[in-house]
Write a structure and sequence with these properties.
single chain, alpha/beta, Rossmann fold, 6-stranded mixed sheet, 9 helices, 6 strands
Length: 219
């Protein structure tokens, strides 16, 4: 016997409830309200998806995209490169169906070695966790969406000679070190394509939105 399905509650509000229509109108609204002229042409869809994930149409004003970012990240992912993140919330936000090669999405934050390593390094767990993935950095796509210390730590690893990722998404959020870490990403002469958002705002949803757009051009 089939279970009895619940009935829809009495409709009392006027709202759009067609999923496809919501999706289409959302992207149309973003394109009406946001500005993209300062971004590389191939970065528009990335910017649109980031705005869609945050609800902030003014986000694009602070968005900085390296001219080679989109091409480098997509090429790496299509070749099977892993995605390395600083937080499980970023990893959870990646839509696996969009990944071109069923790419690994790695976060070492829950590794049992992290607490002791962070203590020995005198840094946060988010930062120390990246060191445990140093052997996976070469050609990867790294996304930092939570901890400014993780972005600073990544840059210091690379300046010390760690393997180079194919691309860096650096959008940590916060009041202490977030703006500064993203400025450091812009200022570092690493020759690694990057995407960042100037200022304090950022976050896991923003990083995941960028990754999802880079993983597949289709909106």
């Amino acid at each position: 016997m089939s279970p009895t399905l619940p009935a829809r509650p009495t409709r009392r509000f006027d709202y759009v409830d067609d999923g496809a229509a919501i999706y289409d109108e959302s992207f149309a609204t973003i394109r009406r309200e946001a500005t993209f002229h300062h971004l590389p042409a191939d970065a528009e869809r990335v910017a649109v998806r980031m705005v869609h994930g945050t609800g902030q149409t003014d986000l694009t004003r602070d968005l900085v995209v390296h001219p080679r970012l989109v091409g480098a990240a997509r090429t790496a992912l299509e070749a099977g490169a892993p995605i390395i993140t600083d937080a499980h919330m970023v990893a959870s936000g990646v839509t696996r169906a969009r990944l071109p090669r069923d790419n690994e999405v790695l976060c070492a934050l829950r590794d049992p070695a992290v607490p002791a390593l962070a203590a020995s390094m005198g840094t946060t767990r988010s930062a120390a966790a990246l060191s445990l993935l140093a052997d996976r950095l070469e050609g990867s796509v790294v996304a930092v969406g939570n901890a400014p210390t993780a972005l600073f730590h990544l840059l210091e690893m690379l300046l010390d000679g760690a393997p180079r990722p194919a691309a860096i998404i650096g959008v940590p959020v916060g009041f202490i070190g977030a703006a500064e870490s993203k400025q450091a990403l812009e200022d570092c002469d690493l020759d690694v394509p990057y995407l960042t958002v100037r200022g304090r705002r950022g976050g896991s949803a923003m990083a995941a939105s960028a990754l999802n757009a880079l993983a597949q051009e289709r909106e």
